[in-house]
């Protein structure tokens, strides 16, 4: 697998020099300065390519070309936004970029309730606490009908938690949940998120899934023309929030998506942390089944709890079998080599997804939660060690 690194552009607190020092050879980045829905100009794409090339780095994956909400709801200016998305793919392909990661999550991108959860070693992790989320949804946001989505005992626990919060804690919780993250259309205020939630809950799961399939019908031919593999990112977390539809959360969802538009350009991002937040997702079995359709990998680990809460743990110490997962991914790369697939999609880019904030980066301005330099470098080193050990075992086995 190619070792890559998520980079948020020239304003990122992590420099390209530091990425090189961490040992990555590829960069996962996007043109976040371009408004969601606009076509990406060739000049802007090439400028980013040139900047990376000056540091001997390749642009391995676009993460992401955001999907406008009008596309997700098939409303408003959907035709214009589809045309712009198609043009972005053509322009990326013309510049030699062949992988695009994207997501189809409604309203919110990845969601956590705590962006600086203190671990026993005093490092900070991302955490999703179900009690806090329910407290916000039911008692702060006061979403209509929210109380019907949760078990009575969870509602009681959430009410106690909410009553114990002061105004600053409640404000921080709201900021953590709805502030908006890279890849979305920006931050929401209270009225904005309430209206957006209603729009998608009124739509419902079946119609939302149909809109995803319509999007695939619109853009996969353009991706094929451009030589681009589309790799959809799973829902994060992979269960409903705010009563919103979720359509990329399970193996069944992946099967339906791949069947909706069969094409080498219609593929998956294997995000171990997102799929792994559900105990009923067997990540290794998913790689075995969907391997030829996996075009990008996020490797991270989590500790799950019975109520749906989870904490992002050490990369090699959590509920996900990362060693088994890397083994399955290396098997997939071997299968591609044996089949004679010597094209640019034969190697799967991997990035260490998220990382703990530690050391001098704790409290430092400009450090993005989950995207610290030291935490991701530590994760990359651990993942590299596993990969090299597995490759050495394979090499010795072949030689014997």
| Overall tally of domains | 1
Largest sheet: number of strands, sense, barrel closure: 8 strands, parallel, barrel
Structural class: alpha/beta
- Our measurement of the CA-to-CA distance between the termini, rounded to an integer number of angstroms, reads 24 Å
How much helix, percentage-wise, in residues? 40-55%
Radius of gyration: 21 Å
CATH H-level superfamily: Divalent-metal-dependent TIM barrel enzymes
- What is the chain-wise order of helices and strands? EHEHEHHEEEHHHHHEHEHHEEEHEH
The tally of strands reads: 12
CATH architecture classification: Alpha-Beta Barrel
The DSSP helix count reads 14
Question: What is the CATH domain class?
Answer: Alpha Beta
Which percent band covers the strand fraction?
5-15%
Spatial strand order of the main sheet? 1-2-3-4-7-8-9-12
Low-confidence stretches: none
| Average pLDDT number | 94
Please state the overall shape, judged from the principal axes of the Cα atoms: globular
CATH topology: TIM Barrel
Can you put this structure into words, describing what you see?
With 400 residues, the chain is of the alpha/beta class. The chain has one domain: Alpha-Beta Barrel (TIM Barrel). The protein is 45% helix and 14% strand. It is built from 14 helices and twelve strands. It has helices spanning 16-22, 42-53, 69-73, 78-94, 130-140, 152-164, 167-178, 190-203, 205-226, 251-260, 272-276, 283-290, 322-338, 373-399, and strands at 2-6, 26-29, 58-63, 99-102, 114-118, 124-128, 229-232, 266-271, 294-299, 301-304, 310-313, 349-352. The strands form two sheets. It has an eight-stranded parallel barrel, surrounded by five helices. It has a four-stranded antiparallel sheet with strand order 5-6-11-10. Strand 5 and strand 6 (124-128) form a beta hairpin. Helix 5 (130-140) crosses helix 7 (167-178) and helix 12 (283-290) runs parallel beside helix 13 (322-338). It is globular and about 60 Å long. The two termini are 24 Å apart. The model has no long low-confidence stretch (mean pLDDT 94).
